């Protein structure tokens, strides 16, 4: 088994959900960090959702987290980790168009 650290970087996230990371085929991934920054001059609220393909479910990791202008928030990190199986993914949505940047850090296990 190979273990590889990776970052997935997404910018200009808006009101339509953006798939910010998907576990590759025949792999699993441990999400070790999700950081979202406000790239707008107004307050935004962001939501992160996880899609579990095998269970055919979508759940919120966080819903409507407030991020003030010029700041960011760590939505997954520290003691909290998420495990994604092949095909599972995370998506991010913001309350304003083109207002959020996201970095997802993972450990992929193949």
Number of separate strands: 9
Q: Please report the first level of CATH classification, the CATH class.
A: Mainly Beta
Largest sheet: 5 strands, antiparallel
How far apart the termini lie comes to 5 Å
Summed over residues and divided by their number, the pLDDT gives a mean of 96
Net shape:
globular
Task: Using the coordinates shown, work out and report the CATH topology.
Answer: Jelly Rolls
The portion of residues assigned to helices is under 10%
Q: What order do the helices and strands follow?
A: EEEEEEEEE
Low-confidence stretches: none
Q: What's the helix count?
A: 0
Computed over alpha carbons, the radius of gyration is 14 Å
Count up the domains.
1
**Proportion of β residues?**
over 45%
Oligomer: single chain
Name of the CATH architecture:
Sandwich
Structural class: mainly beta
Would you summarize the structure shown here?
The chain has 110 residues and is an all-beta fold.
């Amino acid at each position: 088994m190979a273990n590889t650290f990776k970052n997935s970087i997404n910018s200009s996230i808006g009101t339509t959900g953006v798939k910010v990371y998907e576990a590759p085929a025949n792999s699993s991934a441990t999400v070790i960090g999700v950081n979202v920054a406000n790239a707008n001059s107004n307050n935004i609220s962001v939501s992160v959702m996880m899609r579990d393909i095998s269970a055919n479910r979508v759940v919120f990791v966080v819903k409507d987290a407030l991020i003030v202008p010029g700041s960011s928030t760590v939505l997954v990190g520290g003691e909290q980790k998420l495990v994604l199986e092949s095909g599972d993914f995370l998506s991010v949505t913001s309350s304003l168009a083109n207002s959020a940047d996201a970095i997802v850090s993972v450990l992929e296990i193949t």
